[in-house]
Every structure is written in structure tokens, then in C-alpha cells.
């Protein structure tokens, strides 16, 4: 695969793909379009840069939560990815105007590629210019890759996360871990529900030998595993996105935010997330009680005392 594929989705804004992984372009584009079609209105152009990495090496990548891995790409493939990515940025109305910003980004991307970084990141380059960079080991389960792609793409669909006005508003309220958790939680909430629609029966079986019982059940169970892993009830513990997705679910069940708004992206149209801050008692309640769920007769649910509180 050596060409940038231009596949327009249902609305005018494109998702382009530079794919140097062994997963076929058509699979990645089908999944991306499936997720994109869930959005009520998209306004960004998105580039997805995808590649495979080899065995884990584990050196830290400065400034990012990535580690180094064996580099599978040849130097000429890396150069090609870089050239195509640069061209995409030069064609973009916003990034073409920002030489310094562009070069800084490109320098990081090259460093990640040349060090086999296990990238999983959405760059809000401009409000309407988003770049997803993601790396995985060949052989990853299909459901796992779908989930990975859908999660990162949702960040690219989150319009307000690269909106200066929205970010300034949140900053003024003391941007803390909560702002990050809300963004991650919404992304994973969308991901569990949307990826679920993409799974085949075989995927579901692969996913979970105990029995896959649907997206919400699965979300609860994974969050429960995370809590057991590090014995922490903090939203910000390991696997913050999945923990925070449960916090989002609690707010949905309480009627404080809309399930549909998360799933069609409209939650992120007008900076609604700015209301989810530490001076909002409802949000504080969700932040402090998200872990109060249990398994009753094979079904996960929030404790009655939490729902009726
Ligand atoms: Zn994320």
C-alpha cells in the first residue's frame, strides 16, 4: 500500500488513510466509515496514519505515553509515510498556513516511526484538522483493532476538543484530570457501543470465552477488571477511558447527559462538557460513585442506592 486513499464519507469531510499495516485498506476504511456515519454532523478532515510494530522494547518515548518497539517499517517506507503526511498537511487549509507547527508535528511523527513507537493518538492540529496515528502488532484480534480505531477516531469527531473557546472555558474552571476523563470516557462509551455493532459472532467469541453479553455488560465487566487490577476506585486509575465511560454511563442513567448525544457526537458540538466540572454537584457525584456497580444474576448494573440517590 503506497497511496493515500481518498474515500469520502457520507458527509463532505474526508477521512484519508495512509496505511502501512498488513490490515487491508478496505477493512480500515469500512470501519472508519461505519463509525463516521454515526455522527450527526462532522466538520473535520481526518488523516489516519497506520502501521505495524514488532516486539516490545520498552524505552520511553519522550513527552508521550508511548514505548519503543522493534521497527518493522523499512527506512524507505518511513520516508514515504513522512512525504505523504507532509503533503496531506500542505493540502490542508489550516495546517498549510502553519509552517512551524507543521514541522514540529512532522518531526515528532518521524521520531515515533523510527523508534517503533506504539502510537495511539489523535492530534487536534486545528479545530477541523485531525490526525490519528496508530500502531499495532500484526496478529491483533479484529475486535481489538476495531475498538482501537473507533476510539481514536471518536477523538477526531469530538469537535469541541480542538476548539479554543471551549478549551479556554474549561481552563478557566481549572482544567484538571476531570476534563481529560470526560473526553476519554465519551470516546470509550461510544467505542463499546459502536464496535459492538461491527463484531461478528466469531469476534464476540474471541473477545470473551466466558460469553459476550452485549456492549454495556462488557463495559461494566472490563471496568470491574480494571478496579481489581490496581485496587483503585479512582476514575483516573489504570484504563482511565473505560473507567470514565462507566462514569458517563452513570450520568446517562441519572438523566444528566444524553446517551444519543454521545453516540452521534452532538454532545461535543457546543462545549457541553464544560458543565461537567468540580463545581457541578451531579458531576462530582458521578466522579465519586462511578464504581458502585455490581453483578446481579449475570447482569452488571449500578447499585440501587446510587441510582435512587
Ligand atoms: Zn482516548
Quick structural summary:
With 309 residues, this protein is an alpha/beta fold. 48% of the residues lie in helices and 18% in strands. The radius of gyration is 19 Å and the shape is globular.
Distance between the termini: 55 Å
The gross shape turns out to be globular
Count the helices. How many?
A: 12
Instruction: Write down the secondary-structure element order.
Output: EEHEEHHEEHHHHHHHHEEH
What is the residue-averaged pLDDT? 93
Output the structural class.
alpha/beta
Number of strands: 8
Counting structural domains, the number is 2
Strand content of the residues, in percent?
Answer: 15-25%
Describe this structure in words.
This protein is α/β, with parallel strands linked by helices. It has two domains: 5-142, no CATH class; 167-308, no CATH class. It contains twelve helices and eight strands. It has helices at 25-36, 75-91, 99-114, 142-157, 164-172, 177-198, 201-207, 215-230, 240-253, 259-263, 281-289, 304-308; strands spanning 5-8, 14-20, 45-60, 67-71, 120-126, 129-137, 293-296, 299-302. Strands 1, 2, 3, 4, 5 and 6 form a six-stranded mixed β-sheet that branches. A two-stranded antiparallel ribbon has the order 7-8. β5 (120-126) and β6 form a beta hairpin. α6 (177-198) packs across α8 and α8 (215-230) packs across α9 (240-253). The longest helix is centred in the middle third of the chain and has 22 residues, at 177-198. The protein starts with a strand and ends with a helix. The relative contact order is 0.11. Mean pLDDT is 93; it is low at 5-11. The site of zinc ion has 5 residues, from α4 and α6.
Amino acid at each position: 500500500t503506497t497511496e493515500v486513499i481518498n474515500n469520502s464519507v457520507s458527509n463532505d469531510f474526508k477521512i484519508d488513510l495512509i496505511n502501512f499495516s498488513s490490515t487491508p485498506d478496505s477493512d480500515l476504511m469500512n470501519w472508519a466509515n461505519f463509525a463516521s456515519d454515526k455522527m450527526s454532523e462532522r466538520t473535520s478532515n481526518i488523516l489516519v496514519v497506520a502501521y505495524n510494530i514488532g516486539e516490545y522494547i520498552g524505552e520511553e518515548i519522550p513527552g508521550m505515553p508511548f514505548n519503543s518497539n522493534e521497527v518493522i517499517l523499512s527506512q524507505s517506507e518511513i520516508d514515504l509515510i513522512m512525504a505523504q503526511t507532509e503533503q496531506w498537511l500542505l493540502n490542508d487549509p489550516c495546517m498549510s498556513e502553519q509552517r512551524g507547527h507543521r514541522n514540529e508535528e512532522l518531526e515528532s511523527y518521524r521520531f515515533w516511526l523510527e523508534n517503533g513507537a506504539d502510537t495511539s493518538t489523535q492530534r487536534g492540529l486545528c479545530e477541523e484538522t485531525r490526525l490519528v496515528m496508530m500502531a499495532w502488532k500484526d496478529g491483533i484480534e479484529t475486535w481489538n483493532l476495531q475498538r482501537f480505531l473507533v476510539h481514536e477516531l471518536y477523538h477526531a469527531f469530538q469537535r469541541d476538543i480542538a476548539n479554543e473557546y471551549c478549551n479556554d472555558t474549561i481552563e478557566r474552571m481549572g482544567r484538571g484530570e476531570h476534563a481529560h476523563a470526560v473526553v476519554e470516557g465519551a470516546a470509550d462509551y461510544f467505542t463499546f457501543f459502536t464496535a459492538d455493532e461491527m463484531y461478528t459472532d466469531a469476534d464476540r467469541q474471541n473477545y470473551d470465552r466466558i460469553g459476550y453479553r452485549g456492549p454495556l455488560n462488557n463495559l461494566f465487566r472490563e471496568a470491574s477488571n480494571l478496579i481489581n487490577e490496581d485496587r483503585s476506585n479512582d476514575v483516573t486509575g489504570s484504563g482511565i477511558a473505560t473507567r470514565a465511560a462507566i462514569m458517563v454511563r452513570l450520568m446517562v442513567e441519572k438523566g444528566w447527559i444524553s446517551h444519543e448525544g454521545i453516540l452521534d457526537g452532538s454532545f461535543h458540538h457546543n462545549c457541553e462538557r464544560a458543565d461537567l466540572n468540580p463545581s457541578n454537584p451531579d458531576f462530582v457525584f458521578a466522579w465519586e460513585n462511578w464504581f458502585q456497580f455490581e453483578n446481579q444474576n449475570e447482569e452488571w448494573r449500578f447499585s440501587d442506592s446510587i441510582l435512587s440517590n
